[in-house]
Structure prediction request, 156 residues.
Amino acid sequence: MSLPATTAAPTPSSQPSASQQPSPSTSINGPEPRDELVRLRDRARLHYKEFLAKDFAKSIKKANQGLPESEVRKQADVAASDALRKALYKWFGLKKADFEAWKSAVESGAVTPPEALEETPELEASIATPETVVETTLPDVSLEQLLAEGQFEGDQ
Prediction:
C-alpha cells in the first residue's frame, strides 16, 4: 500500500519569520567562527598593547624619574598604540584607518578589554603547566651545518 505522492507548498505560517531566524552572527552551536576569530584577534591585540605599554612605561620612568605616574601611563599608552599600529601594518598590512577604527571601538567599549573577559574552565585546562609540558631534545646543529645542507626555499 502506497501513499499518494503529494507535496504541500510551504505556507507563510509554516516558515519562520525574520525575527525567529538566527542572526548572521549566531548559530545553534554558538557564535560563528568568524565572530570568534575577531574576538580572539581583538583580545590578542589588547594583550600585546598592554605588554607594550608596560614596557614603555618602564623605559619612560627610567628616563624621566620625576614624571608623575599619570603622565608616564599616558605617554606609554600613546607609544604602545603607535608601536602596535606600525607592527600591524608591517606584519599584516593593516591600514592606519582600520587601526584607528579598531582603537576607537576599544575606547568606546565595543571591544571587551582582556581583564574583563572571564577565564573559562576550558581555557584554564588548555594552559600548559610544567607537568604537562613534554621536553624534547633536538640535536645541536650549527648554522654552518644547516647552510651546508642546501638552499632554503625562501633563498631561491
